[in-house]
Design brief:
By secondary structure, the protein is an alpha/beta fold. It has helices at about 5-15, 30-40, 50-60, 75-80, 90-105, 130-135, 160-180, 195-200, 210-215; strands at about 20-25, 45, 65, 85-90, 110-115, 145-155, 190, 205-210. An eight-stranded parallel sheet has the order 7-6-5-4-3-2-1-8. The longest helix has 18 residues, at about 160-180. The protein is globular. The model has no long low-confidence stretch (mean pLDDT about 95). The chain binds pyridoxal-5'-phosphate. Pyridoxal-5'-phosphate binds near residues 210, 211 and 213. Pyridoxal-5'-phosphate binds near residues 47, 154 and 213.
């Protein structure tokens, strides 16, 4: 059991500099985030709007915040002033909302399309077909203040590593199909968590979202 700083060093060594480490700090106290920040970590992931807003008020302003949870349209306005990336895009109307809010704050928000490839029904996201349909909608081109910069996905909650690999391959395959519909900004594949980041890396991940392996178990 190492410290937060030791875990971060361990992961930056394992990941190298081509893959971005997002430290998932949901349900962790600000002291834990400050410890990671002091060790040089700048990208953090949060799942809940209220918690994110509360934290960001008290923490350094140069943190790059990633919203990785399920985002309701009516809550976009709370995070739009400062969020860097929103990973869970699952509809055109959500993208529209985010663009409008970003225009209002005169900033650009990076968005990732969430793909549903896992066997669980509860996981949010678009099927590969739905993602292609969304990406083909001409209205996206007119959304000036968002950049659709890639995809995000979660594998099934299982110890079957071959199933996880199959699902990550599906995410990568869908990314490759979507890429020609976007510009050069479309380059991120956000996949891999504490238990499966190594498989994700082998299958082409560019961003891993790691929580408990850095911070320890979350308080429920
Ligand atoms: C909580 C969460 C993570 C991090 O999970 P760990 O197993 O703690 O690494 C990553 N991605 C999403 C979308 C999450 O909700």
């Amino acid at each position: 059991m190492g410290s937060i700083a030791e875990h971060l060093t361990e992961y930056s060594t394992k990941l190298g500099d081509r893959v971005k480490l997002i430290a998932v700090s949901k349900l962790q106290p600000n002291t834990a985030i400050q410890e990671a920040y002091a060790a040089g970590q700048r990208s953090f992931g949060e799942n809940y709007v209220q918690e994110l807003c509360d934290k960001r008020e008290l923490l350094p302003t140069d943190i790059e915040w990633h919203f990785i949870g399920h985002l309701q349209s009516n809550k976009v306005k709370y995070i739009a002033p400062f969020v860097s990336y929103i990973h869970g895009i699952d509809s055109l109307s959500l993208l529209e909302k985010i663009n409008q809010a970003a225009v209002k704050h005169d900033r650009k928000i990076r968005c990732l399309l969430q793909l549903h490839v896992a066997t669980e029904e509860t996981k949010h996201g678009l099927s590969p077909e739905e993602a292609l349909e969304l990406a083909s909608d001409p209205s996206i081109k007119s959304m000036s203040n968002i950049a659709v910069c890639g995809v995000m996905g979660m594998a099934s909650f299982t110890s079957d590593r071959e199933l996880i690999r199959k699902e990550f391959k599906e995410i990568k395959r869908t990314f490759d199909q979507l890429k020609p519909l976007f510009g050069p900004e479309f380059k991120e594949i956000s996949m891999g968590m504490s238990s499966d980041w190594d498989i994700a890396l082998e299958e082409g991940s560019t961003m891993v979202r790691i929580g408990s392996a850095i911070f320890g178990e979350r308080k429920k």
